[in-house]
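Notebook entry, structure prediction.
Reason for the run: the old model in the group folder had no record of what sequence produced it. Starting over properly, with the input documented here first.
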Amino acid sequence: MTTPEPITVGTTTGDAEFWLIVAECFGTEVPTFQGEGPSCGHPALFIRLSRCNLTCTKCDTKYTWDWSRFDQRKESTKRSVADLVAWAASSSVELVVISGGEPLIQQARLVPLVRGLLAAGKRVEFETNGTIAPAPELVVDGVRFNVSPKLASFGVKEAKSLVPAALEAFAVSEQAAFKFVTSTVADLDRIAELVDTHRLDPVWVMPEGTTAEAIIAATRVLADAVAARHWHFTTRLHVLAFADVRGR
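New structure, fully documented this time:
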């Protein structure tokens, strides 16, 4: 497995702050929905950024970082902020989901993008693994964070995937929801530990799976235990509706 290419996340200068490394954009020509979390079912546009700082074995978007399996020259392109804003503004859909990979690797370059999207009347949701604290310029009205901390069962060492300072920064922002992916009741105890330690709220649990059958099976395993903890429960609508096809 190839280690993801590093990207500087600090302040950028010159032309660098006006472009992003993008894996794919979709939702204009073929409409789709936000498939997970608090906005599940809302019509949405997606800007999926390339690159990630984790290498989870159960990741379903390895084409954004695993260059041992995918060709990064084919799977990623540089697109300007102006181009991305114009693309989103061409649609009447209000919600723009910025996903990855891990989008906050590029967050210094995301600030002008978010400002442009908000000025165009959009609202923005970030899908993030919660390892990088959000820049203050991104914690503004019209922006939400769906924070999905990765447990050891997702195929990653928690020493790398769980960053207390970042989780707590999201928690105090009051603009984040915490979404945990799992297929076992045993993982719920670990989630509860993290929730209590870092004061995470609100909590969403999402069944793991890339097929409708797997999602339904995990839903039935988890539902009673999630309800007993008074947490939110979300499905993976894009898997149920579109069979996990890229671009939907």
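Summary: Helices lie at 72-75, 81-89, 107-119, 158-161, 164-173, 186-198, 212-228, 237-242.
The old model has been moved to the deprecated folder.
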